[in-house]
Structure formats: structure tokens, C-alpha cells
Design brief:
single chain; alpha/beta
Length: 341
């Protein structure tokens, strides 16, 4: 597999009346062909903003991409004109958003919205586009697909609207699909159906995917690689199973400990991350998570830790930390044993 997408030192700011919002701060990573990357972090961590910046969808003003590169198949997307970028969006990179009701045009039929990109990017005539649109609706599990092309978004349930958005995203066989919290507004049953559909379609189309979510359970099920973001930075990244088994950043550990444990068969109290998210109008000199981190060292408050390979892990497992989380956890376990004795 080759590198499909590479971000280099992406920096995004928003200039507001309340001050400068430091939304994305020096984000760099690579995405391989066919890879599924799950990006997690709380609201304000830069997950969605950096994806919108890649797609050229940041409102300017107040937003501004200060620096960086987004290399997709050898081209820097940030240097493309609006017209050039319009040809990339939908055809080569597609994006699915959280709320399909606001993403779909309420006054246009589903068929009109599905066939638009087919005619624009693939040069189909109306008859060809209608046939392909019906095939796409059938592919994502919408019954009576040909008839439903004439329906409007309000005539579909929430889960069905999200299936329509997936069909639109897949319509031109993109090489990369970016999904920004696409199942958050759906109930758990529909969410499970959408996830199963996405896994099936990924196998069929062999496309790369970036899945942005708050839900670590979704990432565990879907992603090859997990990337944890905090205060506009990547704080940990690596193979999903390895990071879940052996997290090396305290924020990652906090996210995982806040999940209910269904494996032990016993009820246990959920842990919470102490403190509040950072004020994104203040650019932290050191590690932004340090005030909430019980393992923080004095250096954490003074100097931003780089994202480096973790000792004893795979080369793909990277973390930004001035402390040795594995050693600190080992000390806690030993202290717990001593207290029992």
C-alpha cells in the first residue's frame, strides 16, 4: 500500500470578536491506501475542523489556514483553486456529515441530489444517472429504490437519510471517504446497521476512510488505526488494538477509563477526566492536558511534547508525553497490591 494522503504541519485559526481561536495546531499524519483511520477526542479538539480544512470548507473569514500542506496523490489540496477543488470533492474525496437533514437540500428530491455529482464528475446523462442512483440506493439498503428517487428528504427516517448520504458519498467511487460523526444522532440499533453497511462497502470498494467520532467503541470495531486529538493536536496515534491495550498518553487513558467495562461481569464506577477542556483562545506553552493530568511533570507545563514512537511499542505507535505512562501505571498496581497486604 502507498501513501494516499499526507498532512504536514497543518495550522488553522479562527479570528473572532472574542479573540483568536487556535483550532488546529501543527497536525501531521499519513493515511495509507485502503486504511481506516478513527479520529477521537472531545469537542473542540480539532477533529472536524482539520477535516473541513482538508476539503477547503473552512469559512474564510473568520477561519484561516495559516500554514501546512495537505498532499493527496501528489497534489497539495491547499494550493488548488476553488474550481479545481470542486472537482476533487465528491469524485476523489467524499464527506458525510453528522446531520443528514441539514446536509440534504429539503426542496430537492433525493434523485436530483444523487444524480448531480454523477452528471458533474462522471459525465452521465440523466437516464444513466437515474439508473446509477437507483443502484446506489439499493446498495445502501433502501427498498423500492427507483421509486424513492422521487421522494424528498423529509419522507425518509433519520437512518434512511444517513444511508442516502452514504450513497451520495459513494456515488463517484472516491478513493477517500471522510465521515464526520455520521451515526451520533441515530439510535444504537440504526447505528449498528450503518456501521455494518460501512464495513461491507469498504470491503467492496477498497477505499480509505477517516471516521471522526466521540465513540471509542465505534473506532474499536471499524478502524485499523486510532488517532487521539486534544486541543488541536495529535496526542497519540497507532494500531487500534495496540493503543487500546497499551495507551501511552494520559488523555487516551482517561477516554478509555470513562467507558463502561462489559468484560468483567461486575459493575464498576465510571472514571471521569478531572477538570475542564482548555480555552482554545489560549495557545498553551506546554502540554495543554497537563492541568488535568495526574501524571504530569514540571516539564509538561513548560514545553510541548513531540509526537514520538513509544518505547517497547510498534514503530507506528506514537505518543506525545514527557512522562512514562506505562511505568506510572505499574507503580499504581504495585501500590494497590501493597495496600491489600
Amino acid at each position: 500500500m502507498g501513501v494516499l494522503l499526507e498532512l504536514k504541519n497543518l495550522v488553522v485559526r479562527f479570528y473572532t470578536q472574542e479573540g483568536i481561536v487556535y483550532a488546529v495546531n501543527d497536525v501531521s499524519y499519513q493515511l495509507q491506501e485502503g486504511e481506516t483511520l478513527g479520529i477521537v477526542g472531545e469537542s473542540g479538539s480539532g477533529k472536524s475542523v482539520h477535516a473541513l480544512a482538508m476539503m477547503g470548507l473552512i469559512p474564510q473569514p473568520p477561519g484561516k489556514i495559516e500554514s501546512g500542506e495537505v498532499i493527496f496523490e501528489g497534489r497539495d489540496l491547499l494550493k488548488l483553486s476553488n474550481e479545481q477543488m470542486r472537482l476533487v470533492r465528491g469524485k476523489e474525496i467524499a464527506m458525510i456529515f453528522q446531520d443528514p437533514m441539514t446536509s440534504l437540500n429539503p426542496v430537492l428530491t433525493i434523485g436530483t441530489q444523487l444524480t448531480e455529482s454523477l452528471k458533474l464528475h462522471l459525465g452521465m446523462n440523466q437516464s444513466q444517472a437515474n439508473k446509477r442512483a437507483a443502484e446506489l440506493l439499493d446498495l445502501v439498503g433502501i427498498p423500492d429504490a427507483a421509486k424513492r428517487l422521487k421522494d424528498y428528504p423529509h419522507q425518509f427516517s433519520g437512518g434512511m437519510r444517513q444511508r442516502v448520504m452514504i450513497a451520495i458519498g459513494l456515488s463517484c467511487n472516491p478513493k477517500l471517504l471522510i465521515a464526520d460523526e455520521p451515526t451520533t444522532a441515530l439510535d444504537v440499533t440504526i447505528q449498528a446497521q450503518i456501521l455494518e453497511l460501512v464495513k461491507q462497502l469498504k470491503r467492496e470498494f477498497n477505499m480509505a476512510m477517516i471516521w471522526i467520532t466521540h465513540d471509542l467503541g465505534v473506532v474499536a470495531e471499524l478502524a485499523d488505526t486510532i488517532q487521539v486529538m486534544y486541543a488541536g493536536r495529535v496526542v497519540e496515534r497507532g494500531p487500534t488494538k495496540e493503543v487500546f491495550r497499551d495507551p501511552r498518553n494520559a488523555y487516551t487513558l482517561g477516554l478509555m477509563r470513562s467507558l463502561p467495562d462489559h468484560t468483567s461481569g461486575q459493575r464498576s464506577r465510571l472514571m471521569q477526566i478531572e477538570g475542564s477542556p482548555p480555552d482554545m483562545r489560549i495557545l498553551s506553552k506546554g502540554d495543554a492536558f497537563a492541568p488535568r493530568n495526574r501524571y504530569a511533570t514540571p516539564r509538561c507545563f513548560e514545553e510541548q511534547p513531540p509526537l514520538l514512537p513509544v518505547p517497547g511499542g510498534s514503530p507506528q505507535h506514537l505518543a506525545a508525553a514527557w512522562y512514562d505512562l506505562r511505568a506510572e501505571l505499574a507503580k499504581e498496581r504495585e501500590a494497590a497490591k501493597e495496600s491489600v497486604r
